[in-house]
Amino acid sequence: xxxxxxxxxxLNILFITADQWRGDCLSALGHPMVKTPHLDALxxxxxxxxxxxANAAPxxxxxxxxxxxxxxxxxxxxxxxxxxxxxxxxxxxxxGRIGYDPVLFGYTDTANDPRELQDDSPWLRxxxxxxxxxxxxxxMGTWPTPWTDWLSANGYEVxxxxxxxxxxxAPGPEYEDGAPHPRPLIYGPEIDDTAFLxxxxxxxxxxxxxxxxxxxxxxxxxxxFVAPKPYSSMYDPAEVPGFVRAGTREEEGDQxxxxxxxxxxxxxxxxxxxxxxxxxKAVYYGLMxxxxxALGRVFAxxxxxxxxxxxxxxxxxxxxxxMGDHWLLGKGGYFDASYRIPLIIRDPRPAADAExxxxxxxxxxxxxxxxxxxxxxxxxxxxxxxxxxxxPFLEGPETPASWRRQAHWEFDFRDPADDTAEKKLGLTxxxxxxxxxxxxxxxxVHFTHLPPLFFDLEKDPHEMVNRANxxxxxxxxxxxxxxxxxxxxxxxxxxxxHIALTDDGPVARPAARx
Length: 514
Description:
alpha/beta
């Protein structure tokens, strides 16, 4: 360990992800409706990163990036179920090497490398395996077995198919059928999945022996969009902000062939009934407020246990949510709503005191999370990492001179089990990819074998008008295509490229990516 990590009390880490949380949905960032007082307080005592982006979607690829510090182009776990190559390390393995015991509450959505597994391994039949190096204390994802077993043991009824427990609504009419509020979850906020998982974490904190790294991975506000009382009625569906979209799905789809294809897939498009869509959005906000309250209890527990002043807290998400914008639901593609996510880091060290309450506007990405955590516990950052530690933002007022000026992400829309996109768009399986680069002013989207997109974000912040074929923008399109190419070249996989075998043996000279 470094000198900083070997001080009398090694740093603890609480690493929190709340699934599918849009970056604008924090009251600390001025959202017109969502209230997140506990996260706001965390930001006031830490640093809020206002331009933070996921590097991939959906859950599996994004979390592969989050946990390895690698862009999708390098870790290659491009879809839910694409195995994550076992040769890649991650923050849990690296922390374990210096004596930490990384533990999991929730899920990491890691499709494990089948070459490392026995033929009878259960992890061959799910993409929801555990991250290598992490010890599951309370693991639950699609199958919430620990929670539903606890419910049954305490006399609560659970569905025959326990996967449906997340969304069992109370009886009665729904909001769009005339009810005054969305139907609530049958389980109250003291016993639902969010409460159960945070309670298990707090039980662990009470017994934690020595420094800990705990990953709390909450499902909410991910679907199903069903919240317990009072969160189900906290926000009025009639009052939620409207939807950023063209007049019709057909008009929206005219922007690009991929978008037209996506809008033809029922799973990814919003309902025609606007009352239903507004109900979903109101419940989405309610689930966020429930998570905020649950985290408030966790933060209070850290204080009561005397752990607050020695625990680094990282709060972020894996990706965002379209929630009706551009007629889409879920995540994917190229729109900011799917990739801009929250990031709050509360660093307890005295070295971070001067920057408490700061809002960082520089572009940060999920590839930066692993380097940051490892840096602050004194572990080496592996050469594989494409991001950089955010420590300079936590300790000082200046942005590093070499810091990135753009955000980058990728979306791999191939489906080995379904060739519909390939047939409809005239692509091969390996051409179902897109890369995106955006800065404060412009955004460029490059497809492997489809036309590009270009947006002037100053004039068109909602990404409605494609300027890629506008003669006035052609020099800029070329400029950003070159920037994207340079970014990919700069971040090609480089695990062994800093090593040379010489007459005197291996010589290594690690260097920064930028």
